[in-house]
Amino acid sequence: MRKIVAIRRVLFDALGHFNDDDGWSMASHLAITALMALFPFLIFATTLASFLGAQAFAETAVHIVFDTWPEQIAAPIAREVVNVLTVQRSDLLTFGVVLAAFFASNGIEALRTSLNRAYRVIETRSFIYRRLQSLAFVVIATVGFLVISVLLLFAPILARLAQANFEWVRPYMGTITLWRFIIASTVIVLGLIAVHFWLPAGKRRFTAIVPGIIFTLIGWLVGSTIFAAYLDRFSSYVTTYAGLASIMIAVVFLYIVSAIFILGGELNAAISRYLEARARVGA
Fold this sequence. Notes:
By secondary structure, the chain is an all-alpha fold. Helices cover 83% and strands 0% of the residues. The longest helix is centred in the middle third of the chain and has 39 residues, at 127-165.
């Protein structure tokens, strides 16, 4: 009974603060900003990869970003992204690519603002520090994607060597699609840990951010599955928005994911508040 009361208090606290602190509006802001930051980030990352000689980066990056999205949502956008990224660029250090990195960092800033509200903290770090940190996130993500693209390039060779020398691994090798999904999921988990741990003001222990991360992952899976089923059976987006259907579907999907992400932060904050209150009563 005591656990039920505790769970109810935590959930009411998280949902109440999400609603009172404009969580629905923040989810809209985060969704639109994420969509606006996606293309600039991929353009910047692809240009940097091409500069370093990784010509096959574009396709790998698209898979990493979109493999965890429902196919109905990801496929149309992924095709357009590939069309954009396969345009040859040699302007890595020009104003356009620097501007792309800046716009990509705006997505990181939207995450920071959402988490600061969710964790109920006031930002005290300087604008320059925050912007440099956001740009560092963009560069680190780019380098991470580049490393993954190189690993995937050698993955078939390593897989054949493993199967030739170790028979017991053959049933576990799966397909390249499975491995791409696993890699994309790992990137999401590491990204969630990084943004919850470093972006918001203040300091948190790793154990304090785990519940929200788990909630976000489960919510992402459930929400995307339900939305994909809705698109398959009941959606009128294509007839309503015609050529804009793909972008409208992406916006709604990102809105759902953004609300789940913010609720994950709210859940972490609510659990911490509950534990602090219990500690005060116990003291």
